[in-house]
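Q: Can I see a sequence and its folded structure?
A: Here is a first one.
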Amino acid sequence: MIRFLILFWLFCATSFGEVMLLKEYKDENLSGWVMSQKYDGVRAIWNGKELKSRNGNTINAPENFIKALPDFALDGELWSEVGEFEFITSTVLDEIPDDKAWENIKYMVFDLPRFDGNLYQKMDYLNSFLSSNPSEFISAIKQIEIKDNNHAFAFLDMVVANGGEGIVVRDPNTKYTSGRSSSILKIKKWRDSECEIVAINGGKGRLEGKMGSLECVDIFSKVAFKIGSGFSDEIRTNPPKIGTIITYKFQNLTKNNKPRFPIFLRVKRGE
């Protein structure tokens, strides 16, 4: 048996606390790191007995899905296809699991939180398990060694061109730690467009008495959606009028052609 299989790893049968989170890429040297596609799904932590969300809530997966999972901890995304974020969330977060819908969900695993080894060893261990215990529900995310930053951005271009959200880059020797790590980063590209404001929603909580969000219609696709971020306090106090055309940015489109994570940029033109 190859050496990585005898590396000591720890398994925690209960919640193992705060999960590892990504930071935004700035201008780091990525040579020698690894990269993979960033899957636009629902973050899920398997602790050996229960499947939990990033916030620690139980994910009610069907029994056959749970039985396919190993007795060691996994971290990854529950995902189906590019552009199906709405389907994924409605399926995964449903209190009563729809067995038929869950047949399309796959657990895209990118880390083994309690394995004492580097990322290559972790993925080898997982792939060895899957070789002996094949499952249509689990997949180890392929990690590609980065030659240089240009290599990483060429990969990003390819992922985005195929409808993906972005990529994740990381130092393969970094151990799994709670909270945000400067050794695991996300890199995304944004698209922009223009939309017309059709309604203004009041804010709640700290935004009471101010604008909370804008109801908009994209002037090109005619798709209606809501923008709730990117506004300064000044704009929230004195929002653009209904009928104003604004420019916004977004990551990609959902299956229903709605902009994913739309963010206000600026006023384009008024009435």
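Q: Show me another, different protein.
A: A second, unrelated one:
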Amino acid sequence: MKDSKSKYSQFIKAEAKRLGFLSCGISKAEFLEEEAPRLERWLKNNAHGEMQYMENHFDKRLDPTKLVEGSKSVVSLLLNYFPEDTQTENTFKVSKYAYGTDYHFVIKDKLKTLLQSIQTEIGEVGGRAFVDSAPVLDKAWAAKSGLGWIGKHSNLLTQQVGSFYFIAELIIDLELEYDHAVTDHCGTCTKCIDACPTQAITEPYVVDGSKCISYFTIELKENIPTEFKGQFEDWMFGCDICQDVCPWNRFSKAHSEPLFNPHPDLLSMTKKDWEEITKDTFNKVFQKSAVKRTKFEGLKRNVEFLRK
């Protein structure tokens, strides 16, 4: 049995690599004991702002066996999105993760292929694929399976590649060989905390989501509170500040996923272009992008907020 667990685990990791994933780690599907009080406290402090969905499915969020019946293993995967080229200087900025095709589609397809390969190789294996759209604590699972540690900015960090990657999971009903968590390498560094213009990182490892630029520019549907005027440093969709200043991201290398390449117009657009953007241009540049989530009106609102 031990041999087959080991053999299956190695197969899954090799297959993940073949599909272009950066890395793959496996942990036992069980209740996340350490995360429970942390999540409860975070919700109690209203750090989720108007992201009401964070309050739903509390039990499922902490226990994958409640989410996927009969599950035994959580297979965590990382996919690099660090771009080769970034936007021109002095423009309104889009978070790097949203440059290309919406990652939900790209990763979902890879996960389906991975699950099919597992079923072909191993036999009847049941499970579900998750890409940040269900109550799964992605970062906690990735850390538990040894893919990195959760940094002071609350993102997953890896010594070799930093933090510019997506996290996804397959939760399956197959027992596998489990990996172990790695140690924290943030040390005494506080660069992410010091650099956050809205002081959203309220203490090391704790982010008040309701103060985060990403929250204001993507999740918040109403007007952005005026007290944050002048603090966004030109970010109009998402924000990469805490990742950009992190010393571990010196090691980020450009991704090799053609679907993540930006629309050519995106990188060269100036502030004036953004201020005058039409619905047609928005649809052309962000045809399949995650930026569609904020919609044309939302992006206009964000640009307007940055202009004044």
